[in-house]
Ribonuclease P protein subunit p29
Amino acid sequence: MSSSATVKVKLDQEVCADAEKLIGLHGIVLHESKSTFQMITKRNRLIVIAKEDAVFQFVVDGKLFTLFGNAMRQRTHLRGRKAKVPTTIPFLLN
């Protein structure tokens, strides 16, 4: 399939004392590291967002996907290789 798709990423993070400004940010993910996402916003600002205790949502073809930052806090090439230990997800989504 050779169609190009634009993926909008919305950050919806639990409210923390110093992280309130991160709630509701929209942008395109440019780079992913072990513990952060680097996103570019509509205002052409590069922001770095910690994955720890964050919930990321994005829409592709009208379907909403939710990713929990704590579950993605490892190197990208190791995610498929590590044995997954069942844990309780501490978030409740509407």
About this structure: Residues 27 and 45 are 9 Å apart (CA to CA). The chain has one domain: 8-78.
